[in-house]
Design goal:
With 93 residues, the chain is mainly beta. The protein is built from one helix and six strands; from the N terminus they run E-E-E-E-E-E-H. It has one domain (3-89).
């Protein structure tokens, strides 16, 4: 399935944590998603995922908060990025 990168950014913060955002536009949705995006939004450190939003074939849109995985309702790319930013900013161990 051909894809075009939209965003690919990585930030290593002063505390050693990493924020990485990767979004691709697809020619057709990745089932069961109905939108044309593939994405991986990550916040964590040295092998410990704190927040991750992603979608994959068969699983669809979902997010990980620590060790918990919950469905995510995708509406727009802007909303996805805002939701991820909110979860990163409000994260606490």
């Amino acid at each position: 399935m051909p894809s075009r990168p939209i965003v690919n950014a990585k930030e290593v913060r002063d505390d050693g944590s990493i924020v990485q955002i990767a979004v691709w536009q697809l020619d057709s949705p990745l089932p069961p998603c109905t939108h044309p995006y593939k994405y991986r939004l990550y916040y964590g450190e040295a092998g410990a995922c704190r927040v991750r939003y992603d979608n994959e074939r068969g699983k669809g849109d979902h997010k990980h908060l620590g060790t918990e995985q919950v469905p995510y309702v995708f509406t727009t790319l802007a909303r996805l990025l805002a939701d991820f930013r909110r979860d990163v900013e409000t994260w606490s161990d």
